[in-house]
Each structure stands twice: as C-alpha cells, then as structure tokens.
Amino acid sequence: MNTPNPTSSSAAAQPLPRIAVLATGGTIAGAAPDVANTAGYQAGVIGVAQLLAAVPGLDAIARIQAEQVASIDSKDMALALWTTLAQRINTLLAGDDIDGVVITHGTDTLEETAWLLHLAVKSSKPVVMTAAMRPASALSADGPLNLLNAVTLAASGAAAGQGVLVAFNNRIHCARDVIKISTYAVDAFQSPEIGALGWVQDGRVEFQRRALRAHTVDSPFTANGPWPHVEIVTSYAGVSRIAVDALVAAGALGIVVAGTGNGSIHSTLQQALVEAAAKGVAVVRASRVGSGHVMHNGAAKDDALGFISAGTLNPYKARVLLALALARGITDRIELQRVFDTY
C-alpha cells in the first residue's frame, strides 16, 4: 500500500501567485491590415483579454486578473493617466489578494512611465512593464513572448523589492536606467550606462545585480497631482532664446535643458535660462547624448548660474523627477540638487 507524501501534497496545493495585468494600449495591442505590416498599424485596438489569449501557458504561471486601464498610442500619454495608473497600482498592491502587477504599454513613452512608477508606487511587490515593437497582427510579433516573460518575472519572488522593472526581449531592466534606442528593432530597449539587471527566459529568472538608488517604498513622491508645468528645451547650433522666454511667460515652474555633451549650453540659451532661474524657475541641465552623466559643476558654474545637474537621467526622466519634486513643494535649488543626487 502506497502512503501519500504529505510534503508533495502540500507543495502541489500551493496556489499560484495572483498577478494583475493592466493594459494601456500601445503597439503590443496594435493591428495592421496584413501580417507583413509592422509600421502602418493602429495602436491600442486589441483588448487585454485578446492579448492574454495569445499567450499559451500563462495559467501555469499565475492566476491573472486583467484590467483595461486605457487604449492609447503611448505617444499620447497624459499626466492624468499617469495619476490614474499609479493610483490603481497602489490600490491593487495594498491588498492581500494581488501579488504583483504587469503593465502593457506602448514603447514610445515607456521609459518615462516606468520611471514615474518607480518613484510613485508604494509597495515592494513586483511591478513589471512590457511592450512590443511589432503589432499583435504581425508575423513574428514580439508581444506575446514579452508578456509571458513579464508575468513570469512578476510571479517570481526574486523581483520583489526591485522597484519597477521592464521585461523586454528576454532582458530585465531597471526603470531608472532603461531607454529606447531604436525606432524599429525588437531589441529596442537597453540600459546603456550600466547594463540590464538580469534576464528572463524559458521560465527562468536571473538577476545579476540590484538597483541601489532609493525607489518605491523609500521614495517620498506621489503621482496624485496637480502636476506642475515643467518643459524641455534643447541646445543646438544657432539656438535662440524664444522657447525659454515663452515658457517663462507661460508660467513654467521648471525647465529641463537637453544640453550638448556633458550638458553644455549655447551661450544665447544659457543667458535665457540664467534669467529664468533668477525668476524662480527650476532649471535642470541634462544631456541630449544617449548615455553618460552630467556632472554637477559646483560653485564654479551650476551654483553660480542657479542650475541643477540631472546626473545620469536623460532629459525626459529628469523632467519626471523635477515635476514630482516640485509637486511635493521642493523648490530650493540646493534641495532639488539633493533630490537628483539621491534618486
């Protein structure tokens, strides 16, 4: 007579993690007239139920709770939707019945949304974003595998406490580091300065390092609004001061400049920004270069001009952090520099 193994029985009865999949649209939910068309498609037209149905094996990884939060092309991402998304994630993760969240998103603004959530989510439970470079209707669409890997990652205990992660093309990226580097390639996301956190493939998750800067539960920021007016200008050969003057006149509270090289700024634009800073506008120096950091020049330059250094954040992520800091009432330049040095 065979005696049942109580240990094996207990392990088999262990319920799968419950993962909430929040869909926002994007190319991953896009459709084109034919399978060879990877450019002339409409984003965000496929619902979350159809997205999940195209990924066999999900039910062996997690119990899925699906929600359609939005159905947009991510180029049209709005601040109000950021607030909605952050609040919904925080509500879901505050309960005991959700173990992690996966967000499907368009690639165009994914790095900005990921960074915002990295600072505004108040839970150590896994939050994973994913997307696709080819629409769901395309031959060799990359969305289903990316979504499978994202759910696998969110269901993994190793993802807890890592902040917001991006699962794309088998790699795991930190929301702070990841950027889009290609207009068409399925390997469109990289972390160029220090590399990916790890990888996920064939159901296996492996981390090679952890993000060291404060995030999520260790971040004081929220995305509850109202959102301060923060814009980006770019330095280039022959640039005028028109954009800066117009933004100051319109009441902008912050301006991020995408400078050349190590955040250097054309003298004409710099003068306009110095005047803006003197009027109380927060001015942050970032770089239009794809990787590297913008050094804080200290008393010799930044302090004298009234500027703040973005460090390793690109202009788009610097704008997000500046907006969150200003929304929290941080306006002193020294305190703002401390924010950029910390997060």
UniProtKB/TrEMBL annotation:
It comes from the Bacteria. Pfam families: Asparaginase, Asparaginase_C. Keywords: Hydrolase. Gene3D superfamilies: 3.40.50.40, L-asparaginase, N-terminal domain. Residues 18-211 form the L-asparaginase N-terminal domain. Belongs to the asparaginase 1 family. This is Asparaginase. The lineage of its organism: Bacteria, Pseudomonadati, Pseudomonadota, Betaproteobacteria, Burkholderiales.
